[in-house]
Specification:
Layout: E1 18-20, E2 27-29, H1 30-33, H2 62-73, H3 79-169, H4 187-198, H5 220-236, H6 264-280, H7 284-293, E3 300-302, E4 323-325, E5 341-343
Antiparallel strand pairs: 1-2, 3-5, 4-5
Protein name: Zinc finger PHD-type domain-containing protein
Keywords: Coiled coil
Coiled coil: 106-168
Length: 344
């Protein structure tokens, strides 16, 4: 069985010097217990000479043993001196303890105040940022409020203008209420009868030029087909175009024209456009008429001279889906007319 040191638990070689406690019979290294042979012979060595102060046979180094022996060899301190020392220590504790406690609390309080100050600065910065946002939003709200009031005034003005325009369009009209409705009634006869009863002389001051008739169709597609039919008829019957005689109206024969119902401004613009088109050699009107009067499957046009101000509906009706490439305004030839292609 290998020999182990009871203090360091390291194996003790057989050839190495060692100590054996005469009391507990345990083995120890000389260095572990600080044995030099000066105090006691090896045969009388005890691992723990101060057994009353240790609960087990624990080896003690030489320096520790010497210190303990020196301590226990000192004479006892007088009781009066011990009492004085005790009173002095207690008095010192009583005098210094409040200051120590104050320092501890002051340090903790300073840390808390510093943290509170940092939090206050952070909250103040957030408040300043929020205040700036509120001021900005307040200005935006004030601007929107002003703009809203202006828009309200604009809408009110437009409503007044629209009302005036509608009334102006009806300035030559009268509304007759209470006339019983009849299936074969003649409104002209009713007006003439009212004039006869009231003694009003109704004369047609513009007898040389007949009044225009305005017809409203269910939708634009039907209107375009009607225009196409009239244009196609006049194109195929150049010697006998649409006239009053073909409509069964007696009297002098007068030509009958069917046009889009345009406002006065658009009529002037249309006439000027036709004049410019004729002088510049453009074929916009001709293309538009051909599209209306024929049922082409595919239409391909080049040199269209179109731009973003001209809509597809101005050239073709709803039968066609249009793909066009106009001259780009940012191209090298943006300052020149011409160009453009179209497939419908």
């Amino acid at each position: 069985m290998p020999l182990e040191c009871a203090r360091c638990s390291v194996t003790i070689p057989v050839i190495q010097k060692r100590l054996k406690c005469t009391k507990c019979t345990k083995l120890y290294h000389n260095d572990c217990v600080g044995y030099s042979g000066e105090n006691k012979p090896r045969t009388q060595w005890v691992a723990n000479p101060l057994r009353s102060r240790f609960s087990s046979c624990t080896p003690i180094s030489k320096t520790a043993t010497t210190s303990l022996e020196a301590t226990y060899s000192t004479k006892d301190i007088p009781l009066d001196l011990l009492n004085k020392i005790e009173d002095k220590v207690i008095s010192s504790i009583r005098n210094e303890l409040p200051a120590i406690i104050r320092d501890i609390y002051a340090s903790e309080l300073n840390e808390q105040l510093q943290a509170l100050n940092e939090s206050t600065v952070l909250l103040n910065n957030k408040y300043e940022e929020l205040l700036k946002v509120v001021n900005t939003k307040s200005k935006e709200i004030a601007f929107l409020h002003t703009e809203n009031n202006e828009l309200k005034d604009t809408v009110l003005d437009l409503q007044n203008r629209l009302s005036k325009v509608e009334q102006f369009a009806r300035q030559s009209n009268v509304e007759i209420v209470g006339v019983p409705q009849h299936r074969i009634e003649n409104t002209n006869k009713i007006i003439e009868k009212i004039c006869s009863v009231t003694g009003f002389n109704l004369s047609n001051r513009d007898s040389k030029k007949p009044r225009n008739l305005v017809c409203q169709f269910p939708n634009k597609f039907v209107r375009d087909n009607f225009l196409a039919a009239v244009i196609n008829y006049n194109k195929t019957h150049k010697e006998k175009k649409l006239s009053s005689s073909l409509l069964g109206i007696s009297g002098p024969v007068t030509p009958v024209y069917v046009n889009e119902h345009l406002t006065r401004t658009n009529k002037i613009l249309h006439a000027e456009t036709r004049k410019r088109a004729k002088s510049n050699g453009t074929k916009f009107q001709e293309v538009h008429k051909n599209v209306l009067t024929n049922n082409f499957m595919i239409i391909i046009l080049t040199e269209t001279w179109l731009n973003n101000n001209i809509f597809d509906s101005e050239i073709f009706d709803t039968r066609y889906e249009i793909y066009r490439r106009d001259r780009q305004s940012n191209s090298f030839y943006s300052n020149k007319d011409g160009g453009g292609a179209l497939i419908a």
